[in-house]
Amino acid sequence: MNVRRVESISAQLEEACSTGDSVEDELEMATVRHRPEALELLEAQSKFTKKELQILYRGFKNECPSGVVNEETFKEIYSQFFPQGDSTTYAHFLFNAFDTDHNGAVSFEDFIKGLSILLRGTVQEKLNWAFNLYDINKDGYITKEEMLDIMKAIYDMMGKCTYPVLKEDAPRQHVETFFQKMDKNKDGVVTIDEFIESCQKDENIMRSMQLFENVI
Amino acid sequence: MAAGVATWLPFARAAAVGWLPLAQQPLPPAPGVKASRGDEVLVVNVSGRRFETWKNTLDRYPDTLLGSSEKEFFYNADSGEYFFDRDPDMFRHVLNFYRTGRLHCPRQECIQAFDEELAFYGLVPELVGDCCLEEYRDRKKENAERLAEDEEAEQAVDGPALRAGSSLRQRLWRAFENPHTSTAALVFYYVTGFFIAVSVIANVVETIPCRSPTRRPSREQPCGERFPLAFFCMDTACVLIFTGEYLLRLFAAPSRCRFLRSVMSLIDVVAILPYYIGLFVPKNEDVSGAFVTLRVFRVFRIFKFSRHSQGLRILGYTLKSCASELGFLLFSLTMAIIIFATVMFYAEKGTNKTNFTSIPAAFWYTIVTMTTLGYGDMVPSTIAGKIFGSICSLSGVLVIALPVPVIVSNFSRIYHQNQRADKRRAQQKVRSARIRLAKSGTTNAFLQYKQNGDLEDNGSGEEQAVCVRNRSAFEQQHHHLLHCLEKTTCHEFTDELTFNEALGAVSLGGRTSRSTSLSSQPVGPGSLLSSCCPRRAKRRAIRLANSTASVSRGSMQELDTLAGLRRSPASQSRSSLNAKPHDSLDLNCDSRDFVAAIISIPTPPANTPDESQPSSPGGSGGGGASSNLRNSSLGTPCLLPETVKISSL
């Protein structure tokens, strides 16, 4: 997907008339303004209708006038939904999952791509996305350490005041359970095929995949 | 940025797909609310003010929102107009930019709001026209300064918060920095202040000549030599206290290198060093000259008062921030002194018995004259000398008067900043109390939702309506999201009180409560509970729903206020907790004999399969029991300890 990135006029102006005053430089930080692809193009590339895209974009633009979300903002936004815990780690992983071109910012296209998979994709695509989320270094294998990081991040979101009291090894045990279920050949890593196969066998997971379809 | 939390809710819920493969329990079904987001835009019509302009006008600047295809996203096909949910007054300025090519800054609007509008429409602040640029920049700088103060004040407010796990060092440091936090610190503060005063007064008094009746009246001794032992003892005591204080501060400082380099610690060292040097230096004539000089440094002890006085600190800070003005003053004075001294010297050169023996000697005359002191010990006698002397005194007034207003205005600004900071600190306390309340409201709203949870699933229509009425679609979906997280991790959100109780039970071993616990009753407690709970929960819900109606309505605003706030532990609201014991006594389920009243956080009935586990005693309030549960059920879907809180009758 081609992305038009428009450097702001301020950067050029700054070079043209630098005042040498550090305060001024701070004021006129070069802000990158990003404009998304045209509506028709996005509609063709995602599974949303035009109206849905309009609605999504308005919200997106309202929150991020510059057109991109950087990681800090992402974490802030996500943490508003989980006031009791610390969601920064999980938001970091989510950010990496959304930021498919790894440029440090989530543009509207990235956002729509992710949402399209999550809300309108097939079960296969969703599982693929989830696998991508868990595979932190994107090498095609989920190791126990990666899963432990993810699990800890999720448990962090619960915060301190949980019932029952959160034990230190709860994430680790959860990871063990997960690997027992998913790692078919017991080689210590979960590949995408093992993952999808195991998930498809699990009724609960399959049923819950339909859970978030009506979000938009 | 403006927290439009509702906008991001779909995203947060979509991201919850990431938890699905990890969930060890089936996730709750989604709330059946049709997210009617399509009407959002149409309904919110800020002012309906219609602006009409040519398309060409907008096309003049294709780099902006209005000039590019980005505005198609805001096109409303039904009404055939572009709808922007923004401030119409600000938009006027934006549109005028397209018309005239100059962006003007509105005088009466908040500069940050204006900035936000510019950012939204894709205009860079450089486009502000020359006529308004200076003011724009000034106001922005002022705002940024004020925001920086805000952050500092926040940190200062949060700083004194006592963390449970703080070490002795941290506590000591906190006591030093904020003496008002504990009585011991306050006592220490006053004691050191007292001793500083004593030390300074002793230094002063020991030079007063006191008449000794025993000696010849013509020879008067300073008191210091008359009572050397007394003064020495007092000095020793003061220095001991100062040394102790310094060492304690050094020990408690979080960053010792930084502490060693700080101004106050240098002053401390300078204050106590002469004493020690004096102890070790033998008393002989050669060195005593230097020794006497050292004693001068004892006067620096008076600077230790700056820890006790904020005004002194402000003064010091002002001088530091006016360093450039002071430097200019000094430089210009030096220039003038040299010029006039030279002139006066050469003018008075011819006279006999003149005081102006050299140019440096004339410096003294110039300084005294320029500062309008006029001691009169050096006076010009020639006519030329008198003429130049008068010019010197006139110019002196001017040169000194020029930088002074700058320094004064700096001082005034800093002083007022300080006043504002104090006022803001007081307001912050009120504000954070309010925010904590809002936050606990959100938590309570969610805990409430959980009580109503089973209602959603199996309650009848009218029961549902009663309790659901007070929850918006946003709240429902948010609570569903939190519920999914609970299911994924097999832990539940609670408030602080129950958490502390659970912690306490864990430390006590927790076993004692099991005897009164609702053990695995043979009759499938889950289902029965779910049947009797609705009534109870409904009653409670009705009672509490009304009390927390305002809270649930304001949940979106609460989330907004939470944005950017540091997490502080939610303070419990006892109202909802106190309601529970009462409710538990209202049990109408007569099919069993409860030994203990149950305060339950009823779980959705989807978990009933877990009840059949024979090895599991029903979860009691003690975490000990539940940890057993956890360990025993490693390979199986994890149990949700339900029915859980026990209160003895």
TrEMBL record, chain A:
* Signal peptide location: none
Where located? Cell membrane; Cytoplasm; Peroxisome
What are the EF-hand domain coordinates in residue numbering?
86-121, 122-157, 170-205
**Pfam family of this protein, just one?**
EF-hand_7
**Looking at the UniProt record for this protein, which Gene Ontology cellular component terms does it annotate, in alphabetical order?**
peroxisome; voltage-gated potassium channel complex
The domain of life is Eukaryota
Report the principal subcellular site.
Answer: membrane
What is the protein name stated in its UniProt record?
A: Kv channel-interacting protein 4
What does UniProt list as this organism's lineage?
A: Eukaryota, Metazoa, Chordata, Craniata, Vertebrata
* Protein's gene: KCNIP4
Automatic annotation (TrEMBL), chain B:
What GO cellular component term, any one, is given?
neuronal cell body
Q: Which residues form the BTB domain?
A: 40-139
According to the lineage, what is the superkingdom? Eukaryota
Give the record's membrane topology.
Multi-pass membrane protein
Q: Where is the signal peptide?
A: 1-16
Q: What InterPro entries does the record tag this protein with?
A: BTB/POZ_dom, Ion_trans_dom, K_chnl_volt-dep_Kv, K_chnl_volt-dep_Kv4, K_chnl_volt-dep_Kv4.1, K_chnl_volt-dep_Kv4_C, Shal-type_N, SKP1/BTB/POZ_sf
Q: Which residues form a coiled coil?
A: none
State the similarity comment: Belongs to the potassium channel family. D (Shal) (TC 1.A.1.2) subfamily. Kv4.1/KCND1 sub-subfamily.
Report the protein name in the record.
A-type voltage-gated potassium channel KCND1
Record's PANTHER family? POTASSIUM VOLTAGE-GATED CHANNEL SUBFAMILY D MEMBER 1, VOLTAGE-GATED POTASSIUM CHANNEL
Q: Which UniProt keywords apply?
A: Ion channel, Ion transport, Membrane, Potassium, Potassium channel, Potassium transport, Signal, Transmembrane, Transmembrane helix, Transport, Voltage-gated channel
Gene Ontology biological process terms from the UniProt entry: action potential; protein homooligomerization
Region Disordered: which residues? 510-531, 565-584, 601-637
Q: Where is the composition biased (Low complexity)?
A: 510-520, 626-635
